[in-house]
Amino acid sequence: MSTETKSTDVERGITERIRASPFLTELLSNRIAVIGLSIIAGMVLVAVYARVAYDLGAIVATQFGTNPTEAAPSAAFWFGTDGQARDIFPRVLYGAWYALKFGTATVLASTVLGIAAGIVAAYYGDLTDNVIMRTMDVLLSFPSLLLALALVTVFPESLGLWRAVAALTLVYTPRFARVVRGAALKVLEDEYIEATRALGATDPRLLIRHVLPNCLAPITVQSTLNYGLAIIDIAALSFLGFGASPGDPSWGMMLAEGVERGLFSGSWWWSFFPGLFLALTVLGFNLLGDGMRDALDPRMRDAVD
Amino acid sequence: MISKRFVAKRLLLLGPVLFGVATVVFGILHLSPGDPAIAIAGDRASQEFIDQVRRDLGLDDPLWQQYLRFLRDTATLEFGQSYQVRRGTDVSAILADRLPITIELAILGQIAGLLFGLPLGILSAVKKDTLTDHFSRIGALTGISIPIYWSGPLLILLFAQILGVLPTSGRIGSSHFIDSRTGFILVDTLLAGDMAAFQSAVRHLFMPVVVLGVYSMAFISRMMRSSMLEVVRQDYMRTARAKGQGAKTTIMKHGLRNAFIPVITIIGIQFGSMLGGTVLTETVFEINGIGTLLVSAINQSDYPVVQATVLVFAFMYTLVNLFVDITYSILDPRIEQ
């Protein structure tokens, strides 16, 4: 009886592994993921183009006298101009660079911290596990944007957008830690870990060379889904006044200025275009993340079969 | 059946969590570079006066003494007085004024999210892999991708500026005077029996609630879709169909009930972003809830207000999740462990 269940478990494990291996093929045949990937690729191109083509100082400086103030979109100013007579088009393009740069920093930092915390908790267990995971639980009992708002005050204002990055990194780390710990616990049960340990591998080697690579799939999905959230939250902090400085070509700051000063004087374009690009970028990451989850989660795949 | 052991266990866990939350808030405020004594005394106060204020506040005491005092004050909901936002007023009085506004907004937003999200998720699952399914899935993902501070202004643009049919800010028209009995504007206007005021309040709430609802719709419809797909494959569904029941009746009678259970858990988790969403919504629509209170308190270094507001937000989130867990354990008794 017990041997029977065991063999079917093994069989299921094998079929799952075979089905999960062509992850990339699966992902690329997922239309939603491909749309997402194309949007992101487009934004990366926009960001790089803006970074190379425009001088940051020139698009931050006010342009009174040179340009009309709060001019509607036209052939000369595709996205119109703002209250400081700045051309909005190059600023919105440059915003893509800001969003991707600070978004990447946030996701990378929280992924690395989350991996460290999650793997250590899973491997050492007991007290270490408890201390780490209970701390994470406490951080998770705050609504994320509110914890970020509180944390932002800890860092000096001079850090600008890095202040938002630092606060959000701490906010997101627990999510990664949970995902990684769960995945690592599963991997640690596998026999090859026992074998590697018997061969005399040191703890760091075991964790980095053997446990981590086998946890990468769920980490990647979590990172992708968190990317969109990071970009939206960084902009939210800027919108509320805790991030970018006035005049910065970040979408959050442009939205803040455009909503506060432009919306009621009829200059809808001032906030419309930054918002459109922001939403499009976040949509790209959400579509990709959703497609990835479908491609990875065998249960979802069964439901589709 | 309600499992008393499960409820007791969850209630017991509430203590340590709230203790942890309070400790984090204490830590954050102590790491902040701002000096509360200067915030109270003002920038141009003399050094003696600032020192005096610091002594009065007990900021010279050892850290552990301040920490214990903070825990005691928090446990007794004694948050002290506001330095700046409403100078000299008890923070608990300010919260009593403003908290209902945010709660009303969050509850209505959550209801809107369910009203938009559940049908969308069910439709998506029933019409799996058709164009309808693709559209509603992409629609839901678009919903979470549009930040509230953009969808809000877009609605203002459409309804207030182009169509001119809805007010842009506040909670009620300036010509209505309503006694604040419960603090919930819809309830207060009804209690006063003033239908014109009630209508005005509804018109003011429309855009903020839609914005919050669209945002939470996405989480709910996604969960409802996958949960529904899971349920549809169950044996009892096939049995129901086999005994001659129509597809619609089967889904309505057996499908929905069982598919809804996992969705309840997502409501708890997603309520956190709902609370974050209220901060942004209140800012866009100039509503005086505790979200805008927190933002102005941070801007003015009003530490007692910051501390109390963050604690209240975390407390609400924790309570909602506790409530969700208990509801879930009643609906699905297997969850006990």
UniProtKB/TrEMBL annotation, chain A:
<keyword id="KW-1133">Transmembrane helix</keyword>
<dbReference type="InterPro" id="IPR050366">
    <property type="entry name" value="BP-dependent_transpt_permease"/>
</dbReference>
<keyword id="KW-1003">Cell membrane</keyword>
<feature type="transmembrane region" description="Helical">
    <location>
        <begin position="102"/>
        <end position="124"/>
    </location>
</feature>
<keyword id="KW-0813">Transport</keyword>
<feature type="domain" description="ABC transmembrane type-1">
    <location>
        <begin position="96"/>
        <end position="289"/>
    </location>
</feature>
<dbReference type="GO" id="GO:0005886">
    <property type="term" value="C:plasma membrane"/>
</dbReference>
<dbReference type="GO" id="GO:0055085">
    <property type="term" value="P:transmembrane transport"/>
</dbReference>
<feature type="transmembrane region" description="Helical">
    <location>
        <begin position="161"/>
        <end position="177"/>
    </location>
</feature>
<protein>
    <submittedName>
        <fullName>ABC transporter permease</fullName>
    </submittedName>
</protein>
<feature type="transmembrane region" description="Helical">
    <location>
        <begin position="227"/>
        <end position="247"/>
    </location>
</feature>
<dbReference type="InterPro" id="IPR000515">
    <property type="entry name" value="MetI-like"/>
</dbReference>
<dbReference type="Pfam" id="PF00528">
    <property type="entry name" value="BPD_transp_1"/>
</dbReference>
<keyword id="KW-0812">Transmembrane</keyword>
<comment type="similarity">
    <text>Belongs to the binding-protein-dependent transport system permease family.</text>
</comment>
<feature type="transmembrane region" description="Helical">
    <location>
        <begin position="32"/>
        <end position="50"/>
    </location>
</feature>
<dbReference type="InterPro" id="IPR035906">
    <property type="entry name" value="MetI-like_sf"/>
</dbReference>
<keyword id="KW-0472">Membrane</keyword>
<feature type="transmembrane region" description="Helical">
    <location>
        <begin position="267"/>
        <end position="289"/>
    </location>
</feature>
<feature type="transmembrane region" description="Helical">
    <location>
        <begin position="136"/>
        <end position="155"/>
    </location>
</feature>
TrEMBL record, chain B:
<protein>
    <submittedName>
        <fullName>ABC transporter permease</fullName>
    </submittedName>
</protein>
<comment type="similarity">
    <text>Belongs to the binding-protein-dependent transport system permease family.</text>
</comment>
<feature type="transmembrane region" description="Helical">
    <location>
        <begin position="201"/>
        <end position="220"/>
    </location>
</feature>
<dbReference type="GO" id="GO:0055085">
    <property type="term" value="P:transmembrane transport"/>
</dbReference>
<feature type="transmembrane region" description="Helical">
    <location>
        <begin position="105"/>
        <end position="126"/>
    </location>
</feature>
<feature type="domain" description="ABC transmembrane type-1">
    <location>
        <begin position="99"/>
        <end position="324"/>
    </location>
</feature>
<keyword id="KW-0472">Membrane</keyword>
<feature type="transmembrane region" description="Helical">
    <location>
        <begin position="138"/>
        <end position="163"/>
    </location>
</feature>
<dbReference type="InterPro" id="IPR000515">
    <property type="entry name" value="MetI-like"/>
</dbReference>
<dbReference type="Pfam" id="PF19300">
    <property type="entry name" value="BPD_transp_1_N"/>
</dbReference>
<feature type="transmembrane region" description="Helical">
    <location>
        <begin position="12"/>
        <end position="31"/>
    </location>
</feature>
<feature type="transmembrane region" description="Helical">
    <location>
        <begin position="305"/>
        <end position="324"/>
    </location>
</feature>
<keyword id="KW-1003">Cell membrane</keyword>
<keyword id="KW-0812">Transmembrane</keyword>
<keyword id="KW-1133">Transmembrane helix</keyword>
<dbReference type="GO" id="GO:0005886">
    <property type="term" value="C:plasma membrane"/>
</dbReference>
<dbReference type="InterPro" id="IPR045621">
    <property type="entry name" value="BPD_transp_1_N"/>
</dbReference>
<feature type="transmembrane region" description="Helical">
    <location>
        <begin position="259"/>
        <end position="285"/>
    </location>
</feature>
<keyword id="KW-0813">Transport</keyword>
<dbReference type="InterPro" id="IPR035906">
    <property type="entry name" value="MetI-like_sf"/>
</dbReference>
<dbReference type="Pfam" id="PF00528">
    <property type="entry name" value="BPD_transp_1"/>
</dbReference>
